[in-house]
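Hi support team,

I submitted a single chain yesterday and got back a structure, but I'm not sure I'm reading the token output correctly. Could someone confirm the output below corresponds to the sequence I sent? I've pasted both exactly as they appear in my results page.

Thanks,
R.
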Amino acid sequence: MSNKRRKYYINKSFQSKFIIKFCLLIALACLVFGALVYMFSMTSCTTAFENSRLVIKSTADYLLPSMVLTALITTVIISLAVISITLFLSHKIVGPAYRFERVAREVTDGNLSLEVKLRSADQLQIVAESLDIMVKSLNRRISSLREKIDALSLIAEKQSDKNQTSKEAKELIDDISREINTFKL
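Hi R., thanks for writing in. Yes, this is the structure output for that exact sequence:
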């Protein structure tokens, strides 16, 4: 299996919510930082020249415009970085989950010949190994049942001329055989 990603959004709803939560956390951190700086600087005064005039303001009022602009720029830059990082990281979780969902559907449809393959860097490798073990175990059990049904069929055919019970047994064996043959090994 190729390690190149074909789709970055596998589960758009989950990944979008995941990214938005991290971006909101960054915005909240910027707001808290700005509020704390503003609050701690309210008790001091700052002098500055504005338009050739000496102006005395509280440090908080003097810093507020610069803090707002800095917080906005920082939030935008860090949010862009967070979007790309969380998209990449969420893909390492959502990708395997999507693969497990597809495998579960195929097993439900009776396909026991598959193997769960993930990229080496993806998360949930242990779950993939467990699914593989489960599918192989089912495959062995179904194969064993098929062999036993074949043996039973041979016995029933040998006994078929002798009585009606053998005919009913043969029909039952055929029903079980059809059901087991829905699995693809």
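A quick pointer for reading it: The longest helix spans residues 59-108. Let us know if anything else looks off.

Best,
Support desk
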